[in-house]
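step 4 of 6: structure.
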Amino acid sequence: MLSNENNNKKLYYQERTIVSPGDLIAEGAFQIPWSPYIYKIENKYYSSVVGIFEPKENRFEVIPLKGSFYYPKIGDTVIGLVEDIETYGWIVDIKAPYSAYLPGSSLLGRSVNIGEDIRKYIDVGDYVIAKVENFDRTIDPILSVKGKGLGRIIHGNIIDIMPVKIPRVIGKNKSMMEVLTTETGCEMLVAQNGRVWANCPSKEMEDILIFSIDKIEHESHIKGLTDRIKNFIQEKKGELGVTESKA
Amino acid sequence: MSQNQKPKLILENGLRTDGRKPDELRPMKMEIGVLKNADGSSIIEVGNTKIIAAVYGPKEIHPRHLALPGRATIRVRYHMMPFSTDERKSPSPSRREIEISKVIREALESSILVEQFPRSSIDVFMEVIQADAGTRLASLMAASLAVVDAGIPVKDIIAAVAVGKADGVIVLDLNEPEDMWGEADLPVAMMPSINQVNLIQMNGNLTPEEFKQAIDLASRGIQTIYNMEKETLKSKYIEFKEES
């Protein structure tokens, strides 16, 4: 165990250690932003999930390794699946504990006329790219499709992953996304709620992308992920190249 | 256990009916992530007791009127399979199972950070595959591991063990004959690192001194189990690390 002693501040774990709930991770007067993954009693900090401990100068954080739900945040871009249609809007599943509402006026730019069938704009089963416009502890999330690149998805594919792994698919300074898009030639949009939209030049590339994202999801806690993914894609492309020339 | 007469619980050599010392735990096995469809799951074996647990959520609550404005609602079902006992058990929830579900729910509620998910529900299911004393505590531990496996934030993992008195001796981790014929049964569940008790019940009689001694013995047993639970949670990821 490593302890950094200055001003009674102590960190009990080294960088990138796997911590489990109840592990005492730090002690002392830290100025850290509120996190659902850290639990504080007096001046002792405990982890509340299985995750990776990540100290940063005067702060620290716990990055969770599991979590199949998304907790909405205002301003996040999400990909929603339309579940139901109401008179003036749509009920959208965004993988959160609450179902989101997309008002018709947000799409049409005017209020919905009485008797108008909004099914012809967006139907059940469609995916939409939207922004979380409003949400707090007391209300269900309200979505908006006003803005560039938002609205119903008409082509491409959706890949579902664990929402806690989204930062890994993006990578530091979008490094992972860069690798994925340049290596496979796919267009990608990574939404905060654990859905990835991809539009690929070929079926093979799409498969490679799906395999890669799956690999990221399962191996996100191992060092050197970006390089490994890069090699993995090149390997897969090589394999495909061989099979293609044989056929 | 179809015996009608009380057997000898502590043998001449000071060992118990299953050959354990009075302060010895039963062999334990646990695993997480055993079910694909559930958000979190676990299976746990304590001696012959075998429990499987599954967790769904946090998710939207139905029916809506059960939603609580300030925190998540936790719904718990403890159930024994018809073949879990030596005589077939009716699959319909008995009075005992309903009560144990409530007891486990209350113990779990004190460990899950329920305030983080207002108006939602967390559903926990436990099935006793094989019953051989200590099912409520094994179920509670299985549920706690499954909740952690689902990525739901908790204060601490719950570790639990029963202590009791058999033939005048304070014994750790009761087995079926001791549970049935012993003088006292005291199940204890704790969150060891923050030193809080989740569940404590008692059946039978103990003097204040014996009670203190029993709690002491339980907390030692709990520490061993707790370390094992942490090992289970972490080992899943360490495996991968060695591969690369």
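step 5 of 6: annotate
 - Chain B has one domain: 28-243.
 - The domain at 28-243 of chain B is CATH 3.30.230.70 (Ribosomal Protein S5; domain 2).
step 6 of 6: archive
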